[in-house]
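Help! Submission page says 'invalid entity' but I think these are all valid:
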Amino acid sequence: MTNNTWVFIEQFKGSVAQASLEALGAARTLGGGVTALLFGQGVAGLAATVIAHGADEVLVADDATLADFRVEPYAALAAKLAREHGPAVLLAGATTAGRDLFGALAVDLGTGCLADVIGLKLVDGLVQAVKPVYAGKLLSDVSFAAGRGPQLVTLRPRAFAKPDADAARTGTVTPVAAALAEDAIGVKVVDYVIEQGQVSLTEAKIIVSGGRGVGGAEGFAPIRDLAQTLGGAMGASRAAVDAGWIPYAHQVGQTGKTVAPDLYIAAGISGSIQHQAGMRSSKVIVAVNKDAEAPIFKLARYGVVGDLFKIVPALTAEFKKRLGK
Amino acid sequence: MNVVVCVKQTPDSAAKIAVEGGKVTWDAGLVLNPWDEYAVEEAIRLKEKHGGKATALCLGPESAKEALKTCVAMGCDEAILVTDSALEGSDALATAYVLAQAIQKLGAVDVALFGKQAIDGDTGLVPIAVARRLGWAPLTYTVQISEIDAGAKTIKVQRLLEQGKQVVTAKLPAVIGTVKELNEPRYPSFMGIRKAAKANIVIWSAADLGLEAARIGAAGSATRWPGIYPPPAREGTVELIDGSPEEVAAKLADKLIAEKVI
């Protein structure tokens, strides 16, 4: 017997995505038990982590075809399990994998999907969620039509609190078999190209970003130093990316990543409406800019009007001292 | 090789967006969804490299013809607008159903390209849902098309994930969801703009596509968006910190540690 609320647990090379743990936390607030779907290869050991973070039951599929997230085998299995057990609500993190899985699953199950929500509650069994639209310039209440379901919802990373692990929690682990054989799967993963030591922007607690004011590719060196000292990720404005100073993967804003760290330090970024769309949900914003009139100061809690090439290295030195590095 | 690129018309990304009497308003023009520019550019490049035709396909109101004209001005050969009052209020999954039917009606398509998401609804669901409906290889978040063998019908791409780039191979036909780094979209040429002004935009209705009434429009959509409103304003005003760089650093460190964000 599974529960009414299911959570898809995303793992990459054996570590559970933070967004999945946040989804477990959100699932617990809906009331009732929580069943987690854990797919991968050699991932059975992660079930304890999943239970400690809020699952009562874990359906584990351990198979070579599931080693990497791929839509075809993951959606086929999730759809099969959902048809067998009939959960009312399914949650996943709104990551690339979570969005793809639930988009495909919605087709398979003949339902819809509430994507990238930042607020979630259950009223008489119906999900009532809030999602940013127009790049966060507006919010929309979203829900399912009466009688439609299952209710698929993806949750914006860092919009929901990650629950603390409770080693005393107990739960059941049920093995399930993969639904597709390898020769029925069209997409093959050949390789990964991963920058070493890179912190994921969407998961980062601290982001240090540079913009037009850094003046060139070399200008990102002090930004990178401060990000590394703080254990954070490095971001950039569209202007810096379009100038070719830093790869697109670092872009924060409307046509880049939407982030919500605890601390966002914007150095040499004026704060266009498109940049603000990507970072306005940050908890504390610090702006360093030569131009006292820059729009970023309207959003910031702390502002420094000055030369980022003097201020940012001074911050790095200060934090090295404070953090004992 | 025949390519279709699915596009949407949206408010300009620089627009101030507001809500008046429950309706969304904006203070700038409607444009081709910025994410779709990369998909249109890639459609034209694939056609230029491998031959065949690039067709732009849009679901929207009559006014969306302008977004399709932008596609033609950039270099698409044909443009099709699916428009019908019965389609109003379609959610992402209903939209995907309509687009998948339209792609099937086109026939003989090897690649369907999409922008990552539309900057109004921001769901990002349509490309993957179309892929799933058609049963085509789902290549979302593509940042590089490394190889296409039009004869063997195979493709190799890099996808941009949170952890880095993933290299995958697949068989055509495929749905390719694009992200920004894939290319640099061209500006329409003078000749292109003249061609677009005279372009014959094909109109398809719900009946032309044989759509089932129960699967389209607001009534055929599983999801609802009953209320829309501005987000709460950020509280407080900026506290400016001054002094020498060292003094600024020390003061700021105190404050950030007190805020428990470090």
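Support: the input was valid. A stray whitespace character was the problem, and the output above is from the cleaned input. The first strand of chain B starts at residue 3 and ends at 7.
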